[in-house]
Amino acid sequence: MRVNTTKSEVLAISRQAIECHVSLDDTPLSQVSSLKYLGIEANNKGKIEDEFTSGVKKYDTNTTLLSSHFKDRHMPSRVKVFLYTTNLNRILLHGSETWFTTTKTKSTIQTTEICNFRLIYGVTWRDREALNIEPIIELIERLQSRWYGHVKRKPQDEGVHRILQ
Description:
Mean pLDDT: 79
Strand order of the largest sheet: 1-4
Shape: elongated
Oligomer: single chain
Largest sheet: 2 strands, parallel
Radius of gyration: 20 Å
Order of helices and strands: EEEEEEHHHHHH
Low-confidence stretches: none
Number of strands: 6
């Protein structure tokens, strides 16, 4: 495997600011305070709220773009559900496998979900069961469990096991 030393960067995650000196083939790698990789942004404090917030903003932007379709009374509700589950959910769920979900993030997710139910169907959260749509929080928890199982099945000498310990 070849590593491009000009593009590679180091992100040291710690509660206190630390200086990290890493070199590859006698080429020092630059240390950064935040790093975006595969759509997930992490900072040197170990927080991913910035990425979560940008995901919610993308979700809200796309909801606004699709709102004319959701408000259309002539569009069948099954098409609206299809748009919701295939487009909006996927935007919000991107990278959610690795999120550390706090009460605040769960509340934000539920709020955006309820706003969309109200927009699409004109229903409240109490009526969600009648729609037969899995709550997004449960979907995120299922995706996180699946990711954790995937990581646990990896060989013990993989780097991800050192991170989890």
